[in-house]
Design brief:
With 82 residues, the chain is mainly beta. The protein has no helices and six strands. A hairpin with an 8-residue loop joins strand 5 and strand 6. The two termini are 28 Å apart. The mean pLDDT is 84.
Length: 82
Amino acid sequence: MPHSEKTILAFDPAGNEYFIDMFVSVRDLSDLQHTGAISDGPSSFRTREGHSVTHLGGGEFAVMVPGEEEAITVRTEDPDFV
């Protein structure tokens, strides 16, 4: 299953920027009844550095950075998430 990718720019409260890559699993269903049909699976998120990201809802994400006890909350103004 190939992945469709989108990049989101988000910022923490101190103004540091985080590039978050969104991956969506896409299954090609064209061998079934409808040529060209696809089905989207659940989205997963990771920073460019490979850190785990959880979508908290709206434009808010939690980034797990090694060495930090708690996740860092970041926000985006991306229209797809606001």
